[in-house]
Write a structure and sequence with these properties.
The complex is a heterodimer of chains A (496) and B (117). Helix content of chain A is 70%, strand content 0%. Chain A contains 20 helices and no strands. In chain A, helix 2 packs parallel to helix 6, helix 13 runs antiparallel to helix 14 and helix 14 packs across helix 15. Chain B is 64% helix and 0% strand. Chain B contains 4 helices and no strands. The chains are: A mainly alpha (496), B mainly alpha (117).
Amino acid sequence: MLFPTLDFGIFFFAVFILSWLLRDQLDMRKAFLLAVSYFFYGYWDWRFLGLLFASSTINYTAGYLLERTERDRQRDRNWIVSIAVILNLLILGFFKYYEFFILSLADILTTVGLERDLPLMEVLLPIGISFFTFQGISYVIDVSRGDVKTVKSPLDLFLYISFFPQLVAGPIVRASHFLPQLDERPKLDRATLVFGFTLILLGLVKKVIVASYLATEIVDDAFAVPGTYSSLDLLAGAHAFVVQIYCDFSGYSDIAIGVAALLGYRFKKNFDRPLSASTLQELWQRWHISLTSWLRDYVYRPLKGKKRGQTHMYRNLTLTMMIAGLWHGAAWTFVIWGTLQGVILVLERIIKGNIREANRRIETHGGQLKSAGIYAPMAILGRLTPSTPLFGWFITLNLFAITSVFFRSPDMFTVSAYYQGLLQFTFTPQLLTPFVLLLLVSSVGIQFLPPDALTRSAQRVRDWSPVAIGALFGLGLLTIEMLGPQGIAPFIYFQF
Amino acid sequence: MSTEQKSTKPALETVDRVGGPHEAAANDKATGLSVRDGVIIMTIASLILLFFNSDGLRLWARNLPGNAASDVLVNAADDWHELMVQTGFAAPKRVVQQLVTGTQDLEWTEKSQDKSF
């Protein structure tokens, strides 16, 4: 069931009351939350409940075996971790990438003249599989590293993997952060209560209003027939897609975090105003934080990050971002998008490093440009381009939007048509209406508010009576319902 | 990827205090009150939606799988919506939606309204 629906409202109301009634019986409460989480997942498609159970069983078993394998038997421990990770990735690979690999293999064979009828079957993608698979892998690896203790009860691990607020679209919660909370007696104070409802409202505004309208007013049309629209519309369409996916995904995360908070569990922030970043590196530190930190800890660092010199770092960075692209979808457009992100991150570092080196040489040798040697062009570049955050923000947002064409396009033909359209330099707006522009400007503008703006807003009503807060919350929901378009579009990230 | 990624504090900074029985009792009482308040908040919000969003309720009922129970819900939702229309509670939503539609239809100039190619 989708968050912004009456079905979920009724479901959550009941879960809220019953879970808190069970507050004094920790195990019963966990069992209840596990049961409702399975109900929540089964509501989407009951056929995949077995998969969720199997994934949890694999990871629980791996943790159990690791606990019973002494640390000096490192080879055995490595085998356990490897098998668990491979099993997790096989499940993910089969459901998510089977068709992609088969079709890609068929294309390659056809190209080299070895056309074959390969077994192609339609494999349904279980919702949330990328998220709960990554959570399971992180548990096993963290146990092997000693970063987290093995769970005492399978109930804890099963609940960690299937907890309904984050089950289908994240955040990817770490075992080290969540599991200790399951052993604590849950608490709820007024500040958390109000903040939870505030987050839910904010998430609904982003998803139901901003993301939905941007999709229907500009993004879907621009990417359906890019050749029909002007360059201005296409440029706006690319930006609108970035804002759409940000609002869609961060909106879901906000609701998930708010819902978890109302049940007494704390999740970490998943987005931190990424569209106000002044470098791509900063954007990726603030965008889908739970995924980027997962990739950092379980892909980039095992590749030794930057420990083997600059070239290795650049390679590892590009590879990690390529995997990020592949995680998002089984298509070459996603792989190219991820690789581009990696390449731009590398170029960013190179340019910044070279400008720093050039300036250091100039300062050291009396301020002469020629003392910068081969770094002189970088010194000139550094002087010609403003080093203000605003300029950096402008470049970063545009680069991110332009490269997002690969992410959004269904195929390479659309990518090609889109970029061709952008390079026509035509400026008649059809899709870029005042309404769309208002949505874009306000959505990006809000990113520049202070980071604690939401907390302070919630604090202002914290001491109101519950009736008054309820009226405010109800009016907020009503306003969202009135302003939003008819019907509920699914979250984009459900396809991942 | 930077290894100095900003540490993300929990989105909510509630204070975990380990104290004696008095602290525990105080926390228990605070939690109980907060849960009660949460129920009140959601109930009031639901009532507001029930009165002012009867159209949404009707739509929800009509999207339910067809069976005897949902038929009852559909009829009840239709009757309720009719009542809300008659009493004027449904009017604000219509007005706001018309405003939104009007805003969506705004164009830059008259010329750009010509969509022929």
